[in-house]
Amino acid sequence: MHLQESGEMYLETIYVLSKRGPVRSLNVAEHMGFSKPSVSRAVGLLKSGGYLTVDGDGSLYLTEVGREVASKIYDRHTTLTAFLVGLGVNPDTASEDACRMEHVISDAAFEAIKKQINK
Q: How far is it, in rounded angstroms, from Cα 46 to Cα 27?
């Protein structure tokens, strides 16, 4: 199943929230500013796609594939944000722009940016 940008955003959010503890759909809805029904639908799609599991208590867990996608998107977000801030972009604007860029930038372009940052 090919993920669209929204699916990647959900996975990234679950990934970030899981660093603080168990994640439930309500946490995702509050963090993203979406309705619980919207999140429930997305969770169902991500679950059927093999990206996450839901336990009996309703806690969400990324599968290995889901964690790979989420960590890749999160790495892109944090790296692109830092790159833009380094160029003098306001941190809030940099984060918003990075959020859009992280889904469309090619692997080659992203790796080139990472190399530039590490110089």
A: 16
